[in-house]
Amino acid sequence: MWRRLKELIRTWDGTLLALTLLLCGVGLAELYSSTLAQPELTALFWRQLGSFVLGLAALLIGATVDYRIYRSWSRLTYLGAIVLLILVLLLGTTIRGTTGWFRFGSLSFQPIELVKFMWVVVLASYLTHVGPPLDVRKTIGAVALLTPLMWLVLAQPDFGSGFLMLVGCGVLLAVVPKPRRWWLGAIGVLLVVATAFSFFLRDYQRDRLLTFINPRANPLGTGYNVTQSVVAVGAGGWWGRGLGLGTQSQLKFLPEQHTDFIFASLAEELGFVGSILVLGLWAGFLGRLLWLIRRLRDDFAVLLAVGFFSLFAVQAALNIGMNLGLVPVVGLTLPFVSYGGSSLVVSLAAVGVLQNLARHFGRQAPMENVL
After folding, report:
1. Domain total for the chain?
2. Under 8 Å between Cβ of 74 and 365
3. 146 within 8 A of 126, measured Cβ to Cβ
4. Model confidence over 14-71: pLDDT tens digits?
5. DSSP H helical segments within 100-223, as ranges?
6. Which of 156, 149, 147, 44 is nearest to 100 (CA)?
7. Structural domain contains residue 368
8. CB atoms within 10 A of CB 88
9. Mind listing the pLDDT tens digit for each residue in 67-85?
10. Is 257 a domain residue?
């Protein structure tokens, strides 16, 4: 067994694995820093550490199981995603206005974190099955698959995760070969959807958009989070105040410093230099995924990797952007770094699947003109 495990690890992409573990290490270190002045967060650190260990097991399983089996299970995966979202609406716990968690005593599970990656598997399987070129009928089929999932996610409501799923769908549709006229139709549909979407925004979401435009309009109300986040980032200077010494985070001026605003917290404690190093880790991680995508030779593998790349890239960009006051607050955490056991375990499992893809370079013919 150990010999087989060693042989398996030798075939892994060591660079991708190292960057993943470093990002997880940054998150654990920053969460531990939060416990120095806030002992009530100590339990969160140990839970996250336990989730990290569980995530490593999920990574190993993902790297072991042949990725092609996910395609044969895509219909069950789709049904499973719908069932999870229905059950969480019926039986889930509501936290800060969102019904999105299953509670098991002191533990919780957020199914949307799993559903986002399940959706990538489903859409990649569908697009591989119908094959290029992409036309109106195939596009409508993809939208029809997304619609029930989006409706259930928005019913929680979780607009951030819904947006990620929509972006993932758009990216996968974009990389499949298609005639030029498809783009004109897609732009028109996007304008209509964006207009219609604005009518479904709740009051607090409209407030977030207005706060993004002018965060100083209500600095003690809707603009408080963004204002304190920007202050924390600026307070770090070049070298930071040091772990456990950030006044904004340790004195609880910065809200959600271990989840949504963890980047602002580490920017205050590690400074500009530390922030650049974390951004460098993310750039290296995403760059390595692009390197992997360009060497895959199987249509399903390419689409699967592109889907995972889009989820990681967009979520990281939105989280860091809202910490810097560059985008509206959307309630998305920073993968691998923010506190959240469900996100960490599922993200590590996704890296395991990517490791499995890396073991199958050169199999089958590539989809023409993809990337």
Report:
1. 1
2. no
3. no
4. 899 999 999 999 999 988 887 777 777 788 899 999 999 999 999 999 999 999 999 9
5. 111-130, 136-154, 159-175, 180-198, 203-213
6. 156
7. no
8. 25
9. 999 999 999 999 999 999 9
10. yes
